[in-house]
User: What shape does this take?
Amino acid sequence: MKSPRVSLVGAGPGSSDLITRRGFKVLQEASIILYDALVSEELLNEIDITIPKICVGKRCGEHSFTQDNINKLIVEKAYTYGHVVRLKGGDPFVFGRACEEIEYASSFGIPVTVVPGVTSAIAVPSSQGIPVTRRGISSSFWVMTATKKDGNFSEDLKFAAKSSATLIILMGVRKFHEIANEVTKYRNPHTPFAIIQNGTLQKETCITGTLNMSNSIQDQLNISLPGIIVIGNVVAEHPSFFEEELQRVLHSNF
Ligand SMILES: C[S@@+](CC[C@H](N)C(=O)[O-])C[C@H]1O[C@@H](n2cnc3c(N)ncnc32)[C@H](O)[C@@H]1O
Assistant: This one.
């Protein structure tokens, strides 16, 4: 009988070399890996081919696992294989439903450890040169999803928009235009934003602009790709704003 245990490991924001050293070590010690769809294939390819790997994410092809299914699978595989590594995108505790998995496994007396990961909420803007705080510009940031379970805007979006914090919105690309409209109720329509998709991966894209441009931007977005919306004056640190400013200065000379 294998002794069951579970490690919840943060895989980092995307690029396979952005997992922590501890995370990678634990991954190599896995008896089986249950991973989310946003986990890089390159990272999985670095792990011994004989270790079974099952994709349990919502974007994993034709199989769609409910959270209930995933909880049960973790426990079942821990009894069959021993050490289950539950590999999650970013950090397990940032919109990762890690608590539900820990509680379920623990209710069977299975020991669970957590290996933190680099969250996409900070690393993805960072990879585009956008600081989430900057002295004199923004002294805090607010990481959130824009909508609640029922699809309505979360009150947090309003509170965050009313503050001077940098807004970092996960899982919001589909509703970008509506989010921008909501934020514009409390912030200047010329506030800069960035939408970064497939962050830290080779196919990373970044669209920048100001909130009043949101309508035309929505059509340019591929809503099936993971993306992060950053709103706030720190976004003006992105190189595209230097180019814009340069163009403005050049043209004003004629
Ligand atoms: C369920 S949340 C999980 C977040 C994760 N636990 C973390 O700490 O990064 C998934 C959302 O994170 C964002 N995300 C994750 N990886 C991303 C990436 N490489 N590029 C852009 N957005 C990403 C997207 O908003 C995506 O819909």
About this structure: The domain at 5-115 is CATH 3.40.1010.10 (Cobalt-precorrin-4 Transmethylase; domain 1). Residues 15 and 202 are 8 Å apart (CA to CA).
